[in-house]
């Protein structure tokens, strides 16, 4: 959700922070603000609305010390924030940064401070003027108090500010990232994290703090990941990391393997269109080096680093995920049970730890998350580990929390995904889950021709996805023609059911449609009451060759729908002529095995949702009310 940028160095902090906030707009937000050191004062401007509103305010009333005043030096220390409202509406007062009563200390915050009400009462009793409705402002007042309390203790400058932040963190409950500056300490910013992302960017004579590496990728690709319950004191030439208790802590430095151009639109009208087009490469990158297409064999064992005995002795697999990642998990269940002959459950991570799930030392838990910071999935992961389960993460983001807290990780290689609604991350999650299922099958049952043929089919997925993308103009035309509709239903069987759910989710996210996905076999158990004349119903049809029984069943479903006057939009593989007479609109897919079909069937539904939303005038990159990474429960 919210975006954080901090900078200390020789450049104009205001310019660097604003540029970083622009790169974080994709996360979703409803207000923005900046604070920079100007001489021995903190200058702060914050506005409700988009970043353009903040930029206009800065032009109309330039900050003291900013380049806009013409003095040229700009101010070399600053922090900025894009807020997604939780406590209190999106107003100028509730926007970040928040200042203490003296105006010399500024703080930005991501996450939820669960005990803020009690802390606010304490502050009010001491005479503090807490002006906003947020949980975040209490951190600014507490930091000023703790900083003052350290006067005369021998700690000064950065160590004093970091010590004050550690004392604040020990008082806070919940999930939070905090970044702060103080007018007394001109060349330092400090940050802290618990259950919410924060990364350090290490440049030449300058340094950055951000909630996402994309904020500083223009300046450096060298990053430092912070661990749980750590505070970092950032100078232009160094970063000092400690635990909340003050003990020294190590932090891993790594190199970001993509550059700024990867997060640009590259001529496309939206990031979503670009990311849909990037899917053949993203799928190929996720497969790269993990299977031999000629032999149909996998090479995942060394990468995962899990003892094969753990996989052989596992009694069940539990997939935990949210939203789109949950739909990838539903495909994973089918693959694990087919190829590994191992029971598999798929759980909504947001519900997992609240229902006393039965997991233990012989359970393999697979946590699927694009960002690696999804709070619901992280909390579920921790609950599973407390029960002794082995946890494997499927994730797109190097250095994020979920992989670090797992026993093993299988990275997808989608690259940066800027659009809030997931496309290429979904396909690469599918690929990673299918690779994992094949690996489990090989470890538990030994190599077989079935597994080798599945691996060979999976290796052809990049070409299959590219073939689908080359035939999407009729889908776009169809979407434009349905932009006036208000409801679309999706049906699927077997691996087509998760695709139907994902197709409906994309329409909800992008077009603000009422859209529902159903298992086609459930049609006659209630949903058929929704069928009415000219209602668009999208049906994912399994292969008449490799899933003949399922194919016959779903053709019967389509006939039931048409008999009631609905408009049938059918996704069927090349060569399937049996379904053609019952399709008002026929979208052809490459002929692939049933468990591979979601990789090609999801693509037309992404294109359909994107085009329909665009026709309705919606912003497909930043849908309303949604954030890219939901880092609070």
Describe this structure in words.
The chain is an alpha/beta fold. The chain has 3 domains: 1-261, Aminohydrolase, N-terminal nucleophile (Ntn) domain (Glutamine Phosphoribosylpyrophosphate, subunit 1, domain 1); 264-467, 3-Layer(aba) Sandwich (Rossmann fold), CATH 3.40.50; 470-625, Rossmann fold. It has 20 helices and 26 strands. The chain has an 8-stranded antiparallel β-sheet, with helices on one face. A 6-stranded antiparallel β-sheet has the order 5-6-7-8-12-13, with helices on one face. Strand 2 and strand 3 (41-48) form a beta hairpin. Residues 67-74 have low confidence and may be disordered.
Short recap of the structure:
The chain has 633 residues and is an alpha/beta fold.
List keywords for this structure.
633 residues; alpha/beta; Glutamine Phosphoribosylpyrophosphate, subunit 1, domain 1; Rossmann fold; 3 domains; eight-stranded antiparallel β-sheet; six-stranded antiparallel β-sheet; 26 strands
Question: What's the CATH class label of the largest domain?
Answer: Alpha Beta
Return the CATH topology of the largest domain.
Glutamine Phosphoribosylpyrophosphate, subunit 1, domain 1
The neighbouring-strand order within the major sheet is 3-2-4-1-10-9-11-14
Evaluate the radius of gyration.
Answer: 26 Å
Distance between the termini: 11 Å
Secondary structure: number of strands: 26
- Biggest sheet architecture: 8 strands, antiparallel
- State the helicity in percent bands: 25-40%
Ranges where pLDDT stays below 50 over 5 or more residues in a row are 67-74
Query: What number of domains?
Result: 3
Hey, roughly how much beta strand do the residues contain?
15-25%
